[in-house]
Give the backbone structure.
Amino acid sequence: MAHLNVALIGYAFMGRAHSNAYRQVGRFFSPKYLPRMKVLCGRTPAGVTTAAEQLGWEETATDWREVVRRKDIDIVDIVTPGDSHAEIAIEAAKAGKVVFCEKPLANSVKDAEKMLAAVKKAGVIHMICHNYRRAPAVMLARQLIEQGKLGRLYHYRGTYLQDWAADPNVPLVWRLRKEAAGSGALGDIASHSMDLARFLVGEISEVTGALETFVKERPLPENPKKKGKVTVDDASASVVRFANGALGTIEASRFATGRKNYNRFEINGSKGSVAFNLERMNELDVYLTGDDRAVQGFHNVMVTDGGSHPYFSHWWPDGHIIGYEHTFIHTVYDLLESIATNKLPTPNFEDGVRNQKVLDAMEKAAVTRRWVKV
Amino acid sequence: MAHLNVALIGYAFMGRAHSNAYRQVGRFFSPKYLPRMKVLCGRTPAGVTTAAEQLGWEETATDWREVVRRKDIDIVDIVTPGDSHAEIAIEAAKAGKVVFCEKPLANSVKDAEKMLAAVKKAGVIHMICHNYRRAPAVMLARQLIEQGKLGRLYHYRGTYLQDWAADPNVPLVWRLRKEAAGSGALGDIASHSMDLARFLVGEISEVTGALETFVKERPLPENPKKKGKVTVDDASASVVRFANGALGTIEASRFATGRKNYNRFEINGSKGSVAFNLERMNELDVYLTGDDRAVQGFHNVMVTDGGSHPYFSHWWPDGHIIGYEHTFIHTVYDLLESIATNKLPTPNFEDGVRNQKVLDAMEKAAVTRRWVKV
Amino acid sequence: MAHLNVALIGYAFMGRAHSNAYRQVGRFFSPKYLPRMKVLCGRTPAGVTTAAEQLGWEETATDWREVVRRKDIDIVDIVTPGDSHAEIAIEAAKAGKVVFCEKPLANSVKDAEKMLAAVKKAGVIHMICHNYRRAPAVMLARQLIEQGKLGRLYHYRGTYLQDWAADPNVPLVWRLRKEAAGSGALGDIASHSMDLARFLVGEISEVTGALETFVKERPLPENPKKKGKVTVDDASASVVRFANGALGTIEASRFATGRKNYNRFEINGSKGSVAFNLERMNELDVYLTGDDRAVQGFHNVMVTDGGSHPYFSHWWPDGHIIGYEHTFIHTVYDLLESIATNKLPTPNFEDGVRNQKVLDAMEKAAVTRRWVKV
Amino acid sequence: MAHLNVALIGYAFMGRAHSNAYRQVGRFFSPKYLPRMKVLCGRTPAGVTTAAEQLGWEETATDWREVVRRKDIDIVDIVTPGDSHAEIAIEAAKAGKVVFCEKPLANSVKDAEKMLAAVKKAGVIHMICHNYRRAPAVMLARQLIEQGKLGRLYHYRGTYLQDWAADPNVPLVWRLRKEAAGSGALGDIASHSMDLARFLVGEISEVTGALETFVKERPLPENPKKKGKVTVDDASASVVRFANGALGTIEASRFATGRKNYNRFEINGSKGSVAFNLERMNELDVYLTGDDRAVQGFHNVMVTDGGSHPYFSHWWPDGHIIGYEHTFIHTVYDLLESIATNKLPTPNFEDGVRNQKVLDAMEKAAVTRRWVKV
């Protein structure tokens, strides 16, 4: 069977998730091309060697420039911190590779646009990894919307809540420093909710709202007796308008005590509603005004029925749930099929640029205290 | 036993709820003064007579001015449409009566302030009826916050969602006309969420956001072939800041298909969180970071334990739930006890004015597209 | 308007609930005959006088025999302990009164049968108060079943769980003594689940199972240093068969820590299922195999829509919940309408006898360790 | 790194789940010995070849007798139908292999006992695959019980509900024929609930109850115009007693419309309760009487915190859920660690025998209509 050779640049949290996707996709799906886990690239030789063995990569490398130019590499997958995405992706595009990039596409609209220009110029397949689109329940929501089952869309209500920073004693880790992370809750997790909003409801046209840093100073990891300044947002809250007239709210926080990975949305349309919560990702709540009036109520749908739900025919019998990591397997599968049919997958760098523009508008709105067009 | 004579001005939906509270309070609680349902006042003689019989009032009247001056009346309870509150309340205050008024206090800050001035000048007891404060679960949330159980408060996340107007064929009823209703979802239901926010988190200092009218024209009730213009908001969405530094979102809609009376809030603090939904009003979800780590999770508390939960010792054994109407009984009970001890109850006209200022600021923010100080 | 004079014999917990029903029924419903709360009867003059004032009865009495013979009494309502039901009901029937009796009808099948014979002979209207049948959600379940929406019924799964006796330090109160209570969890709460089973699924034909007393001795209320023997069951667990072929389980316990009034059932049929929990009594979960396959899931129906749900047109707008006490108001309303139309209401003494026979069979099964026909 | 060579006998549904476990265990865990997927054994050469490629096995074989005697094989994993387990396991034990066997251990107590005798005589490590024990939430329940957090145990309430056979048009597949399947819902799924009962509460001492076949005849798969007799139970319902005095109910059905894989249990003890549902397997509901009274309620614990919950430090950050297949990975990991430390893992063949005895007692109880000692 035909293979596509993959080079993965980076091997932290997302590296584990992507590696698992490459290992597993051919075991449960039958893509036309199977991925071959050719080379793992990282800066420290010892680290990358250990990771490659653990994660299942054939070779290792420390110079991404060499790697992306290798003749035998078909797909360059970028899971490094956001500030390095642009450079790597542009080189990979120039070298004619399929470019698969973790979100956020870049740390600025400008960089994201350069990346988009590069992949377009090179004529290569490109994709951004917003894996939550590939949760079966989210894909089902999309199908219901496309089939008109919800009618005209009125509301998007998105929250992405975590609580790991709620304790002021949590030290000033890299995610809380702007120079390293680019942004706080906004770029890290609100961005997921925004992408789902665009995927399910449509383009966001304008935004307003606030960013807030509740705990301004924190102990330094290197010296807990000293404190350093937190330079990113702990939480973001916004009201958004969509091009199609829908009204939305998007909120993200690392201070929502008790919420671990609460990526929740609710969409209300004239004929029905859907509600999703990532912590119960195998379920979708669906309300339909067309039901008999006496039994109208949110259907709690287990989206695990291979006969009618996206992706599930490849997994287990109905009611046997899948987990977080499976959303990456679905994403990789769809990428492979896009390559096989030479069609541009979604979300791609175009989406990456648009998402970045929404993030940008939110940051401006927070500073100017006004509505900002995207 | 001592009685206080009540005059109720108005007898629609809220008239039924208040009448029930007067009938029931003495059956389950033992207030020092029992209310006597003396006179029901309404404009149409036939209507008021039928209502008085159904609801249990001794007498009827059609001229509220006469009624509020009657020597034998102790409490004037106002449940008429908002535009008449000011006039009636001011006259009642002048006559030295206890003034109990449905929300909103008035349709403008100016009127609300006049009412507050009048009751202060007269030195009478005054109260605004925000009955949801008296759901046992809401009162428990307040107690936990006051005891410091949630620590420093970071977030208020309030939604009040209904769906009765989502169908464009719903006719242009009075609630959809500004001249009659003053405001739409904002004044009608977001106002409840705002009052709960103030009760539980503290004063709101500034707001931004949007109002939206999704369906601009609707069939006239009197002639469904013709359409008339909807002049209030179908939905409101806002980001708010509190004086104590907390960040909030408050959203209200009559277009959230599947949500009937979904008055929900979640509050996140440094030591814990609470979440409430009026549709399950006998429950409060409580998260505490002080729990053993292995069993941390939201406690689903049935707030029906007479031994530890507000008001419930007067009702039924644990697990036997109460309903919507009981919140009015609790409110009336607290009013009666305030009168007996000559203490000003909360929420009172001061709260009414402040709530009105927040509503006002929201309307301005929607028009000016900026943050507006309250 | 025409009235029916009521005499209530007994005034403890159930007396409060029944009194409330008489006070409220005419305020929200429009029965042809209104109840007049004529006389409250109890053994101790002081107690009955206080109760009558609190609950709203016109007169008091201490001799039930005199009361049931009074010419001006139309309805005799019996809420005394179970061992006195038979005597009172039989006398009331002889006197030609409508007889309304709390569950259990009696403490033995024999007594129950005598009562049934008496009301039949006298030709009077009779009813047993199994108020949970009148929760709107339960009535909706019944309607769906009668309409064939669930198809052929396969399973009834009933639990009634409480936890007030789980602590071994709870003293030996009357409910834990057979001479006073007749039975423990079985007669007190499993009986409710059995009645719902009969109402919704059909007659129970045979039973097997166990009774258990976990804590055999408890401190005496009168002298906590001494212990006395617990003589009733703490829990019952049974498997039952229905005449129509359905298979059921019915379990009740006072030792289910965390469950306060968890009267839950689930019914599975060939075309659908329903699930109910009294602690969330305004909701019914409904599954229908006829839904589009992609959106099949339990509908969480708020049974509060006056336009399509039983009883609710008399209460509040959709989403505004009612409580435990309302089930008694519905029961009394249906009784009054039955009297007005001279039709025998359900459940009546026939049901009381049948329920008693099931309880009897369960006790025999526990002792003989075999299946017992009802 | 050291390896252990595995031979997998069988490759259907369970074969996929076990294969996945072998592939993944070393990627997320660091067992002392890694499994090497040496040989897959099945009856049809074509089938086994395709499966081996898909699932990742090095070699294939069609004669299990040869395979289990191979010198290079360390672990024999048996996932064939139950009637062949005994023969294979006994041969494998004789050959000195670690024997890992899917549930049920055998189709009769006699066979199960032979298997136990064989592994004991051979002195080999043995394990039965009851994977649900290794859901982190189930393991947490066990820990809480062992720590005494629930106090004395009173109740086990287990249901395992599915609905795939509720439609009478489902054909007479092998699972509905006794000669092929041995048993119906009882052996297939009630057995899981029984094993969890034994794991969490203790040994079952006696049982009573019923088996039921609702649909007696079904269309033949090979000729849908003809019908054949269903020879297994569609549902089982039982009351059980535990050696420690606890009372239980265990019910299983393939006719519970709307329930897909609803393996639920609730355990009530004197100090607390736990409730679990496999369809939401990342959650455990926990009630503790030691909580402050005002906030007592079931904690909805997400069992995904690597710092405090079993197995999760090997997976993803808190709130990122795992799925069905992970329970097998945990099982295999624990097996590998048992081998490394030469300790007998649980559940092992001893448990297999005891489970079989409970099943046996249930079948006898259904026939004799009496309580049967295990």
User: Anything to note?
Assistant: The longest strand of chain C covers residues 153-161. Chain C has two domains: 3-132, 136-280+282-322+353-373.
